[in-house]
Amino acid sequence: MNILIIDDDLETLDTLKLYLTGTGNVTAVCNGRQALQQARMQRFDVILLDIEMPVMNGFQTLDQLRNLEECINTPVIMITGKRDRYSVMNSISMGIDGYLLKPIRKDELIQKITEVYQKKQQHNNKKTILAIDDDMSYLKQLNSFLQEHYNVIMINSTKLALDYLANHVPDLILLDYQMPLYNGVALLSILRQNGNCRNIPFIILSGTLDKKALLEFYPYEPFAYLAKPVNKDALLENVERVLNQND
User: Fold this and answer.
1) 144 close to 173: Cβ distance less than 8 angstroms
2) Is the pTM of this model over 0.70?
3) Which of 65, 95, 122, 177 could bond to 206 as cystine, CB 3.0-4.6 Å?
4) CB-based contacts of 120: which residues, under 8 Å, 6+ apart?
5) Which domains are delineated in the chain?
């Protein structure tokens, strides 16, 4: 596997690289800007990220990485000495896959990396659902509902969604109505002009399902309209129906 380590402490970088000898191909950088440069040049399977760093802290770096098509769903493990509630909860809300406290033991590190890597590989064998919503916390909730059975790709902007769809064809799209740049209807209009994406089924998940919104979506033949906050059982039932229909 390809592993990216981001930490401003050179001693920590050397220790982690030593721990991971034989585990994968390791690239180590000491700030967020260098991480973004590396992520544009190479795809990584796992990212290890410190929180307290100069130039950009870990949260800013993660936010920027998620704006790269190459890193939209790359597993991220926080490697930090910070134990405070804000750091932990903010990391979770940003969708991290692990939170390890310094000093880190070798066996603990390798176990967590192996766990998130294998989980990613298992997801790759499942049907893929693309969830598009500008609210990342809501995307995380959808992921928690669906991740046991499906590979969920979470994207929080229409621009990133278009970048992703230029190279990937998911089995189903879950789409919000109100988003910056393009709303859900405008995004569908663009996708229907793309031969690869023209026939992807989609479900509307929105807090705005008034008559105007429904009429705008109607020509694109959505499989279902579900109002936020979405019910887990209703979501799973509709997702299963549309995916089984297309088998």
Assistant:
1) no
2) no
3) 177
4) 45, 75
5) 2-122 (3.40.50.2300), 126-245 (3.40.50.2300)
User: What does residue 138 show for φ and ψ, rounded to 5 degrees?
Assistant: -70, -40
**What does the alpha-carbon distance between residue 12 and residue 6 come to, in Å, rounded to a whole number?**
10
Locate 241 and state its tokens.
């129906």
Distance CA 11, CA 235 (A): 47
User: HSE on the CB side for 144, CA within 13 Å?
Assistant: 14
Query: In a 3-state reduction of DSSP, which class is residue 167?
Result: coil
Assigned token pair, 75: 């597993």
* Distance of alpha carbon 172 from alpha carbon 193, whole angstroms: 17
Rounded CA-CA distance 47/76 in Å is 5
Q: Which residues pair with 188 in a beta bridge?
A: none
How confident is the model over 98-147, as pLDDT tens digits?
Answer: 999 999 999 999 999 999 998 877 766 688 999 998 888 888 889 889 98
